[in-house]
Design goal:
- There is one protein chain.
- With 536 residues, the protein is an alpha+beta fold.
- It has three domains: 2-216, Alpha-Beta Complex (Spore Coat Polysaccharide Biosynthesis Protein SpsA, Chain A); 232-325, Phosphorylase Kinase, domain 1 (2-Layer Sandwich); 331-529, Aminoglycoside 3'-phosphotransferase, Chain: A, domain 2.
- 38% of the residues lie in helices and 23% in strands.
- The chain has helices at 37-47, 66-71, 87-93, 167-181, 191-198, 220-226, 237-246, 286-289, 292-302, 337-351, 363-374, 379-400, 439-449, 454-465, 471-496, 505-530; strands spanning 2-3, 6-11, 31-32, 35-36, 53-57, 74-78, 101-105, 108-110, 118-119, 123-140, 146-165, 205-208, 214-216, 254-259, 265-272, 275-282, 311-314, 321-324, 330-331, 407-409, 418-420, 426-428, 435-437.
- The strands form seven sheets. Strands 6-5-2-7-11-10-12 form a seven-stranded mixed sheet, with helices on both faces. Strands 14-15-16-18-17 form a five-stranded antiparallel sheet, covered by helices on one side.
- Helix 3 (87-93) crosses helix 4 (167-181) and helix 12 (379-400) packs parallel to helix 16.
- It is globular.
- The N and C termini lie far apart (99 Å).
Length: 536
């Protein structure tokens, strides 16, 4: 028998299955039948005599702090990589605590307490699934030992719920955790992937549970079916907005599904009265970066062009936007020639439309504003940014000496913002940063978003112009690529203060700022020489 030493509860994830509930509440703190799921687990562990509990947090980590005061002897450890890595990184953070340990997921709901002061062997909870399933299916030896795991299958016992690892399992597994964590390409690994790869070295047994004892809710619909409170009037602000806009009960809001989180906003799709829509929920700190009144005005200005998403509701105070959902649509590819040509044709149409907005997009002012917002946040980063800012001033001086046209520009020209509809039509969404600017800025922004090389950026400008670019046009391209890289680097660092992580995106933007600063100065020297009158 192994006397249980402690329990680890993994609670770092965003909880996309419970969107939009988890826009306001971390998944583990979502109440089910009146009690947050993680609190139900803590109470069950304590009832079994397990006092030492470690919680690994990430998303909205500050909301878990009350648990230490309420329950005592709770350790909370932050996984700063929660947004860019899977739960392998969370277990890696607490590997030193792995002994005779329960491992739980904060978004499980367990009906009957399945924890004990001691356990006979290492096990993984499982339920039987009839018919096809995409769960992790188990092959078992006669004694219940797990001999194989396949993702997807039919009529099988599947991994479902908590785990117990005995010390003779945990100690060697710590070394594997360290090894795999430091192996390139394991960013999306769950810790179970290690067990699957190394199962010949570890004995893990099945702990068969009744189908109604352990719940892993896959969607808001499943949560509603289990807890009727979610089918009527909840306290969720997003559902309340939808209900008010469409004059429908919350129970009429169907098929809520997360859309891949954007860098500025989070979004989800839903249906009301048989029609599909997208709800845009501004991410943390976004409304401090974006003028929503300007964005709303831009949408009204470009409406006659028919190039943007179809907005049915816009709240300029909160930044919430509801637009029609285009079923079967896809994001364009920066490597697909047809997509590139059509994207540029759409941009030219906007640039040549003659439409104007009240406010320009002045990249120098935006950079200065971001720099001011960074003050006091991180002194080392601010010092480094200040040094780079001095370089960017030289780039801005070069641009100010040039005569450049000003047209309506999108500014945030990410290839993902160009949407190909089923009928082939192209739409350009997310006009948050739009304003009057140099049209070549749009080309530069697309190039750095697409991670283009210098040659690819040069070719892209040529494709936009329909001819070989002049020296001054290429100079403007490089200048905006440098300034854009610096702007989005600052933007990324600012968002990180709100606990939002974007992997190596900020580093890549910094590289564009540094590399294209050099290209800009080099080309500016050539441009200056080309303008000198020739001697007789």
């Amino acid at each position: 028998m192994f006397k249980v030493d402690n329990a680890v509860i993994l609670a770092a994830g965003v909880g996309s299955r419970f969107i939009p509930i988890t826009f306001e509440t971390p998944k583990g703190l979502v109440p089910v039948r009146g009690v947050p799921m993680i609190e139900r687990q803590i109470r069950q562990l304590r009832a079994a005599g397990i006092q030492d509990i470690i919680i690994v947090t990430g998303y909205m980590r500050e909301k878990f702090n009350y648990l230490k005061e309420k329950y005592g002897k709770i350790k909370i450890i932050y996984n700063r990589e929660y947004a860019v890595k899977n739960n392998l990184s969370s277990l890696f953070r607490v590997r030193r605590f792995l002994k005779n340990t329960y491992i739980l997921s904060s978004d499980n709901w367990i009906r009957e307490n399945m924890f004990h002061p001691s356990e006979e062997r290492s096990w993984y909870s499982a339920v039987y699934k009839e018919g096809p399933t995409d769960e992790w299916c188990l092959s078992l030896a006669d004694d219940g030992r797990i001999t194989d795991v396949t993702i997807g299958g039919a009529d099988s016992w599947v991994m479902y719920g908590p785990v117990f690892l005995s010390e003779d399992f945990s100690v060697p597994f710590r070394e594997k955790l360290y090894q795999y964590y430091h192996t390139h390409g394991t960013e999306n690994y769950m810790w179970e992937h290690i067990f699957i790869a190394e199962k010949a070295h570890f004995d893990l047994y099945v702990n068969k549970q009744k189908s109604d004892n352990v719940y892993e809710f896959e969607s808001l619909e499943e949560l509603r079916a289990f807890d009727p409170e979610y089918g009527y009037r909840t306290s969720n602000k997003c559902l309340a907005v939808i209900s008010n806009v469409f004059g429908a009960e919350e129970s009429a809001i169907k098929n809520v599904a997360a859309i891949k989180a954007g860098m500025t906003n989070n979004s989800f799709s839903f249906e009301v009265n048989g029609e599909a829509y997208i709800f845009r929920h501004p991410g943390k700190g976004s409304n401090l970066l974006i003028d929503r009144r300007r964005e709303k005005a831009v949408y009204e200005t470009i409406k006659p062009l028919g190039v943007s998403d179809d907005v049915v509701y816009f709240d300029e105070k909160s930044g919430v936007k509801i637009s029609r959902y285009y079923k079967g649509a896809r994001n364009t590819s920066a490597q697909n020639l047809r997509d590139l040509k059509d994207s540029l044709a759409l941009l030219r149409r906007v640039h040549l439309s003659g439409l104007k907005t009240a406010k320009p997009f002045l990249i120098d002012r935006e950079i200065k504003r971001y720099m001011n917002m960074m003050i006091g946040k991180d002194n080392l980063k601010y010092l480094f940014s200040t040094r780079m800012y001095l370089k960017m001033i030289r780039v801005l001086v070069i641009l100010k000496k040039m005569k450049v046209p000003k047209t309506l520009c999108h500014v945030d020209c990410n290839p993902d913002n160009f949407i190909r509809l089923e009928d082939g039509t192209l739409k350009l969404i997310d006009w948050e940063y739009a304003g009057m600017a140099d049209p070549i800025m749009d080309i530069a922004m697309y190039a750095i978003y697409a991670y283009y090389s210098k040659k690819e950026a040069d070719d892209f400008l040529k494709l936009y112009l329909g001819r070989n670019p002049r020296l001054g046009e290429t100079l403007r391209l490089y200048a905006y690529m440098a300034l854009g890289g610096f702007l989005w680097m600052l933007w990324t660092e600012y968002k990180e203060f709100f606990g939002v992580a974007f992997g190596d995106y900020g580093r890549k933007m910094r590289q564009y700022a540094e590399v294209y600063y050099d290209y800009t100065l080099s080309l500016a020297g050539k441009n200056k020489k080309s303008k000198k009158p020739k001697g007789r």
